[in-house]
Specification:
Length: 327
């Protein structure tokens, strides 16, 4: 069985890229923009204003998202993590329809993971998650990309992976939904820390140490929620962390770099650019604290973002941590 009709909610850069992925896989793709004016513009120009220079595949239909039942075999929800509840809260789907979250974050107000939000809003759906080392521009242009697609059961995960897969876009299927979600959420926070290191010009050795110790935090957090080791060391964990901690294409890395050169959090916030790690940092650290998980790098990022700690003080606090065995 294959999902022949797939809708994409969210016509930003990543949503547009995934609509092209669906079309290349030979499926019927519908790109649903939340703003009718944006939908009309994309339908006319065949290009998203969030992904300039990338033409939307001719086989992708474009429409405005409206409340009510969506008739489709599967849905990709490609909106920011904090907007996911609103995006799915007014729609309905047939029982058993896979609804795949494509945001990497944790809902700040509730501490819910993305599939938990979908489950609350659409109790008859099959919540799933798509995550991994990928940039929208690369994917939209058909450059080789491998990601992880996780669903609660093997059959659903495998079906969805086959529905989206093509020679250039390779989804590896998994049933470790929580592990995939944790990798995507935590790596955004750690990418901000990597950007700070770059902005402060602390060197390649410090960047490597930061990424390695950050991964140790991600693993500790994942284990506490039952994530599988192979998920944390796979594409959606270590793979995505390495990409976002080393590339200027990462919005989280770029935000961290601006912090590192001395631009304050409030000033950065006025730019309106989305960096999911800003919204995830505080709730991630709070969830870790509740379970007694040590996450000093993530805690330092959260403290810098809320203004309770300066960049230099955060770096000094991390460097002054007691000597201990690695682990």
């Amino acid at each position: 069985m294959i999902a022949e009709r797939i809708a994409v909610i969210g016509a930003g850069a990543w949503g547009t890229a995934l609509a092209n992925v669906i079309a290349r896989a030979g499926r019927a793709a519908t790109l649903l923009a939340r703003d009718p004016a944006v939908a009309a513009e994309i339908a006319h120009r065949r290009e998203s204003p969030r992904l300039p220079g990338v033409t939307l595949d001719d086989k992708v239909a474009v429409a405005a998202l409206s409340a009510g039942k969506i008739e489709t075999d599967a849905i990709l929800v490609v909106v920011p993590a904090q907007a996911l509840r609103a995006a799915v809260g007014e729609i309905a789907v047939a029982r058993g329809t896979p609804v795949i979250a494509c945001a990497k974050g944790i809902e700040r107000a509730t501490g819910r993971f993305m599939t938990e939000v979908i489950g609350e809003c659409l109790p008859h759906a099959v919540p799933a998650i798509l995550s991994g080392p990928s940039f929208a521009g690369d994917v939209a242009r058909g450059l080789p990309t491998a990601v992880t697609l996780a669903a609660p059961d093997e059959a659903s995960a495998k079906m969805l992976a086959h529905s989206l897969g093509s020679p250039a876009f390779r989804p590896y299927h998994s049933t470790d939904v929580r592990g995939v979600e944790i990798g995507g959420a935590a790596k955004n926070v750690l990418a901000i820390a990597a950007g700070i290191v770059a902005g402060r010009k602390l060197g390649a050795s410090a960047a490597a140490a930061l990424t390695t110790r950050g991964f140790a935090e991600l693993v500790r957090f994942g284990r506490a929620w039952g994530a599988r080791p192979e998920t944390l060391t796979g594409l959606s964990g270590l793979g995505d962390l390495v990409l976002t901690c080393s590339s200027a294409q990462s919005r989280n890395f770029q935000l961290g770099r601006r912090l590192g050169v001395g631009i304050g959090p409030a000033e950065i916030g006025r730019t309106g650019e989305l960096a999911e790690g800003v919204y995830t940092a505080g709730v991630l650290v709070e969830m870790a604290r509740e379970r007694g998980i040590d996450m000093p790098v993530s805690a330092a990022v959260a403290a810098v973002l809320d203004g309770s700690l300066g960049i230099d003080e955060a770096i000094e606090a991390l460097m002054a941590r007691p000597f201990r065995a690695e682990g």
